[in-house]
Amino acid sequence: MLDSIIDEVDGRRIRIGQHWLVDFASCNYLGFDLDAEIIGAIPDYLDRWGTHPSWSRHLASPALYGEIEQELTELLGVEDTLLFPTITHIHMSVIPVLAGEGSIFLDGRAHKTIYDGCVTARGLGATVERFPHNDLEALESKLARSSAARRLIVTDGVHSMTGNAPDISALTSLAKEYDALLYVDDAHGFGVIGERGAAEPCDYGLRGNSVVRHQDVTYENLILVGGFSKAYSSLLAFIAGPSKLKQLLKTAASPYIYSGPSPVASLATALEGLRANQRKGDLLRSEVHRLTHRVLDRLTELDIATPNESGYPIIEFSLVDADEIDEAGDYLFERGVYVTIASYPIVPKQEVGFRVQLTAANTDAEVDHLNTVLGELAERFPLRIREPSAPFADGAR
Question: 26, 183, 232, 336: which could join 228 in a potential S-S bond, CB 3.0 to 4.6 Å?
Answer without folding.
Answer: 232
